[in-house]
Specification:
Layout lengths: L8 E4 L3 H12 L4 E4 L11 E4 L2 E4 L8 H9 L11 E3 L4 E5 L5 E3 L3 H11 L3 H23 L13 H9 L6 H6 L5 H8 L18 H9 L2 E3 L4 H13 L3 E3 L4 E7 L2 E7 L2 E4 L2 E4 L3 H8 L9 H5 L6 E9 L9 E5 L3 H9 L10 E4 L14 E9 L7 H19 L7 E7 L1 H8 L31 E3 L10 H18 L6
Parallel strand pairs: 1-2, 1-13, 2-9, 6-15, 13-19
Antiparallel strand pairs: 3-4, 5-8, 6-7, 10-11, 11-12, 14-17, 14-18, 15-16, 16-17
Helix pairs in contact: 1-9, 1-15, 2-15, 3-4, 4-8
The protein binds flavin-adenine dinucleotide.
Amino acid sequence: MNTNLPEQTVVIGGGIAGMACAALLAKSGHTVRLIEKHDDLGGRNRKWIHKGFHFDMGPSWYWMPDVFERFFQHFGHSHTDFYSLKRLDPSYQVFWDDHAPTPLPAGIEGITELFDRFEPGSGTRLTRFLREAGIKYNTAMADFVYRPSLALTEYADLNLIRKSLRLDLFQSMAKHIRKFVRDPHLIQLLEFPILFLGAKPAETPALYSMMNYADMVLGTWYPLGGMTKLSEAFHRILLEQGVEVITGTEVNDLVTENDVVRAVATNRGLYEADLVISGADYHHTEQDLLPSQARTYSEKYWQKRVMAPSSLLFYIGFKEQIPGLLHHNLFFDAPFAAHATSIYDTHAWPEDPLFYVCCPSKTDPHCAPAGQENVFVLIPLSTRLDDDPAKHDYYFDQVLTRMEKQLGRRIKDQVLFKRSYCIEDFKTDYHAFRGNAYGMANTLKQTGPLRPKIRSNKVRNLYYTGQLTVPGPGLPPAVISGEVVANYILKNHNMKLV
Ligand SMILES: Cc1cc2nc3c(=O)[nH]c(=O)nc-3n(C[C@H](O)[C@H](O)[C@H](O)COP(=O)(O)OP(=O)(O)OC[C@H]3O[C@@H](n4cnc5c(N)ncnc54)[C@H](O)[C@@H]3O)c2cc1C
């Protein structure tokens, strides 16, 4: 037992980042209590069960399996202890307004053939693009993303600077991609993974072509039983490591004295704390739970941040299976530029948005009653909109109309039920700043040390993890974020992750 350790560590929020951090600290000897507002763990990665349908409420793309594997290995586990993974082939399909639907095969040979069909010669250029993207991915994993990013000087290592310059990291993704392909369909295929980072390709640094490597080389996977298998696995690890998990309990105040948090006040009473890590939305923790003199960032600072989009989601039960859909379907049958402008510039409700349809019952019969179909629809929206339930029905009808046109069949009369979920739900459920779905965008000015810091500047024993700090939005970054914070805290106690 290390006597340097705080007596009681409290983690706020049982999302993936909070759970990762709590489990790693507990493994290293900390006495950890995790407090979560909802009755179940997982945060944005939770489940909604209705009429025999099992909906993953948030994430549906299981990318970068190596990151999850690395986390499980810290505890002597592999994902196989918790779930089976299936690589999807095709990875996904895209619907266009001027071309037949395009499935993206799993495997680089099939993808280069596909590129050559759209633009002769582009297959070879894609291979070069992906080779560079692979170097970025491996460099980022080895040299960048597991750093606490508290100061730019962490990156002032000469070798790293040399590598960065060679890798063309800071040019925009939009320009970088256009050096390799010209066909608009291929440009859109290569720009699609950037949407996960929550910013326009013109404002996202070319470092993130590593996401194309994740997409096309590492592949799209699915945990049988649903994405929430991941949350269940993390929960099991928490219990194995002796973390005290308190659910259905909302933190509403951090009790500070001078520059130290002494206790965490909840709707169910007070919990003493010597060390606090918040995995809840960063803005909420600072602005709602801390007194003003204890905040590192002002409201003005937050107002200037570019948030990743919010979303309008539909969870739909269909009476019958829908031929023509695959597990992942991207409806790029409307102009992307107009939609992106409405999200990032005009902050308006989009006229004809691009949307994404997930149909996990194509892979996993567990998701829907026999013969029926589980469908999840996502439309990215600006976080500066006032939610308006009247709009939900308008978009529901538009989405189904466009699906009918693309699929060449009627589906509206097959709807058994639908639930919509939008900006106000993100605020109510997660205290999400402006109702963001995926946190803060990874623009050039909001990457690495330029993101909100993992350590409070004002409160000595307060740390932050999750999608608003480093490295950014997404499940793999959430796991990495938990690990970065746990590691940083342990280093301060002269300990290492075991
Ligand atoms: C619709 C949608 C689709 C997505 N798709 C993908 C995808 O396909 N692939 C992918 O990798 N990522 C995807 N993401 C992003 C991914 O889900 C998130 O980046 C990740 O889950 C964030 O984890 P987190 O731990 O940082 O935050 P959260 O999951 O938000 O966890 C924070 C937790 O804190 C709790 N909390 C908040 N306030 C309090 C309080 N006061 N007291 C107690 N508890 C509190 C919340 O209830 C929550 O459980 C998607 C997200 C959404 C919303």
